[in-house]
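User: Here's a structure from my thesis project, written as structure tokens. My advisor, Dr. K., wants to see whether a designed sequence matches the one we expressed. Can you design one independently, without my sequence as a hint?
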């Protein structure tokens, strides 16, 4: 609701005075849009200002009655009354607008990612009706991205999501079974890397980390995926080097942020990873690895620190 226009009490004010009054009105509207509670103190301050008092005196000398201060406060009261009487409608409208904006953002992300995935099919001679349908079956909502019935968050997990502090990354550390989380650097400064002991810890605290089978279902729901019937736990399963891992990366919007192991960062810019919660023996655990063309579901040493994407 914009400033309620009232007739000016004087038509003899200078253009400079008119500009001054208009600037107050514009500032009022700007403050109202941010927080209505800020508007009334602002008006009172303006009315008490030297410039405003000079304007009042100018108006008196012109023989006209000056009532701008009263008009400003009356307009504020009318706005406040309007807000109070229509608060429910306003809240519903805000929610509707927020939903439209969020849906528009998600639609743009979906369109961009699916276009990239379809281009990947075309570049690798995989552009068939069945494969295109697989890409189109991926569902984007405000809350999640769902592939093969497995819904994941839009962003990789952060240490702050669990109230964790970063481990000091100043020396090599071979403590494989101590929970640790590291902050990324450079181009990947917004990426957090969890070792498997930390993954195991937050899972026990209720974090929804995908299992090996969740990973496999996702990969199998995309073109160029794992061959059906291959043993899920065999390190030499046919079809483990698969293009669907890269398609999963494209659709989830993950980065080639590499890993951290043995005190060093590796493969930044050429490989990306996502942990599962599933162990492979006493020293290793399953994770998805993706590169520029293909990737795999493989097992990695527990001391490796990798990114993490939670289920929703």
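Assistant: Designed independently from the structure alone:
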């Amino acid at each position: 609701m914009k400033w309620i226009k009232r007739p000016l009490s004087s038509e003899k004010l200078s253009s400079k005075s008119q500009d001054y009054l208009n600037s107050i009105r514009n500032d009022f509207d700007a403050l109202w849009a941010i927080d209505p509670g800020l508007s009334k103190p602002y008006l009172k301050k303006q009315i008490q200002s030297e410039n405003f008092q000079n304007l009042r005196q100018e108006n008196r000398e012109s023989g006209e009655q000056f009532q701008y201060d009263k008009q400003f406060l009356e307009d504020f009261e009318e706005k406040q009354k309007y807000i109070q009487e229509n608060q429910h409608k306003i809240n519903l409208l805000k929610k509707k607008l927020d939903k439209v904006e969020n849906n528009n953002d998600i639609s743009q992300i979906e369109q961009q990612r699916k276009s990239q995935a379809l281009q990947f099919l075309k570049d690798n001679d995989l552009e068939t009706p069945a494969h295109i349908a697989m890409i189109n079956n991926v569902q984007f909502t405000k809350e999640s991205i769902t592939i093969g019935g497995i819904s994941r968050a839009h962003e990789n997990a952060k240490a702050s999501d669990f109230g964790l502090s970063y481990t000091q990354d100043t020396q090599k550390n071979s403590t494989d079974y101590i929970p640790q989380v590291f902050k990324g650097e450079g181009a990947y400064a917004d990426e957090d890397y969890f070792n498997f002991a930390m993954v195991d810890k937050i899972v026990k605290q209720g974090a929804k980390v995908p299992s090996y089978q969740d990973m496999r279902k996702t990969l199998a729901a995309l073109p160029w995926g794992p061959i059906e019937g291959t043993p899920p736990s065999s390190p030499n399963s046919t079809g483990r080097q698969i293009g669907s891992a890269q398609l999963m990366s494209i659709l989830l919007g993950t980065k080639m942020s590499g890993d951290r192991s043995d005190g060093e960062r590796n493969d930044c810019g050429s490989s990306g990873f996502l942990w599962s919660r599933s162990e492979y023996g006493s020293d290793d655990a399953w994770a998805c690895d993706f590169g520029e063309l293909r990737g795999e579901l493989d097992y990695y040493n527990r001391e490796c620190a990798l990114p993490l994407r939670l289920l929703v």
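When you compare it with your expressed construct, this may help: The CA atoms of residues 174 and 226 lie 33 Å apart.
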